[in-house]
Amino acid sequence: MSLTDTVQAFTGAVESGDFSKAESLLAGSFTLTGGFQETLRKDDFLTLLQALKKAFPDMRFNLSNFQEEGNEVHTVARVTGTHTGHLSLPAMELSAIEPTNKALKLPDEPYHFKLKDGQIDAIRIEEVPGGGLEGLVQQLGLSIDYPDVAETEGAG
Q1: Distance, CA of 8 to CA of 13 (rounded, Å)
Q2: From the centroid of its chain, how far is CA 141?
Q3: Which of 31, 37, 123, 129 is the most buried if burial means most Cβ atoms within 10 Å?
């Protein structure tokens, strides 16, 4: 399987709701950076994807412009979907958001996949205005109140 095939298999598995297959295509050391407040590890990323798939059952990545370079695949994503399910992201202080039936169409976002031993080891999403999770919730007419880092550091 080529690097691009692995990336397409992963996004296809997420789009079809096959999270066992999606998990098998992610390395144990997987990290996601960009598009979110903090770096996500494998389990947190899969939990996020499952929550998004539940809220947007027709979610698609719409990847295009694949370019392989060494052990990396560079592509452009235009995430789309319709908010027809409950959205719950407790880690981001969004819980039980009722379906709005709004169509989601994020702007083109460059995605960079790093592969290792036939699995995706890292994804880096280039931040663009209106993109990422913040762009998603803005399109639903919501906002995310991230905890203040200074407050959370002293709370231990």
Answers
A1: 8
A2: 19
A3: 123
What residues are paired with 112 via a beta bridge?
74, 124
Q: Report the C-alpha gap between 49 and 47 in whole angstroms.
A: 5
Q: How far apart are the C-alpha atoms of 54 and 37, rounded to whole Å?
A: 21
Q: What does the pLDDT look like over 85-132, one tens digit per residue?
A: 998 876 666 667 889 999 999 999 999 999 999 999 999 999 999 998
Place of tokens 């407040």: 37
Q: Which residues contact 135 (CB under 8 A, 6 or more apart)?
A: 106, 107, 129
Residue 81 DSSP symbol: E
**31-72, pLDDT tens digit by residue?**
999 877 789 999 999 999 999 999 999 999 999 999 999 999
* Amino acid letter, 139: Q
The Cα 123–Cα 30 span in angstroms is 8
Contacts of 14 (CB under 8 A, 6+ apart): 22, 49, 53, 59, 61
Reduced to 3 states (helix: H, G, I; strand: E, B; else coil), residue 90 is helix
